[in-house]
C-alpha cells in the first residue's frame, strides 16, 4: 500500500493508523500547492480532488477520505482493536465521532487556515469552534481514549485536528482535558514515529 500525504495535514490520521496497525506501506509526499508528488506525479491523476489523504492499494485501487481510509485499515487488523466490530452499536458510535470531527472541527479549522476565507468572518468561525471544543472535552469526559479503554481511529483523527490549533491561534488552555488527551496520544510510540517520519518533531 502507498499513502499519499502532506506533513501535518489530515493524512496524518491514516499514517498513524498504518503504523499502529503494523502495516507494510510506502509514503509519497504531495505538494498541495502544485498538486505534484515528490516523484513528479500529477497528484490529480491519483485523486482528482487534489486533497490528501489517498491510499493506493496493492491492486492499484485508490481509496480517499480519511474517515473511510482509517476504518478500512482498522477492519484489516481486527486484533488491534482500532475500531469496534462492523454492525455493532459501538461501531456507529465511532462513526458518530468521526463525523463530528470531520464536520464540526475539521471544517472550522480549514476556514481559519484559508487565506481566501473572509477575514471578518473568522472570529465567528473561531467562536463556533471554541464551543465545539468545549463539547469535545465533555464527550471525552474521564475516558483514556475517545472510545474508552482502546486507542482507536477516532483518536488518530482527533489528535490530528486538535493539533492544528497551534497554527491558527486557537488556544486549548481553557480545556485541560483536551490538553491532557493530546499529551497521551503524543506519547504513543506509533504516533511519535509518524510525527518523526513527517518531519514534525
Question: What features would you describe in this structure?
Answer:
The structure is a single chain. This protein has 201 residues and is of the alpha+beta class. The chain folds into two domains: 2-80 and 190-197, Glutaredoxin; 89-188, Glutathione S-transferase Yfyf (Class Pi), Chain A, domain 2 (Up-down Bundle), CATH 1.20.1050.10. It is 47% helix and 9% strand. The chain contains seven helices and five strands, in the order βαββββαααααα. The protein has helices at 12-20, 66-76, 89-113, 122-140, 153-162, 176-186, 189-197; strands spanning 2-5, 26-31, 36-37, 54-56, 62-64. The chain has a five-stranded mixed sheet with strand order 3-2-1-4-5, with helices on one face.
Task: Determine the CATH topology of the largest domain.
Answer: Glutathione S-transferase Yfyf (Class Pi), Chain A, domain 2
Give the helix level as a range of percent.
40-55%
How many helical stretches? 7
CATH class category name of the largest domain: Mainly Alpha
Query: Which structural class should the secondary elements be placed in?
Result: alpha+beta
Low-confidence stretches: none
Shape type: globular
- Count structural domains: 2
As laid out across the biggest beta sheet, the strand order is: 3-2-1-4-5
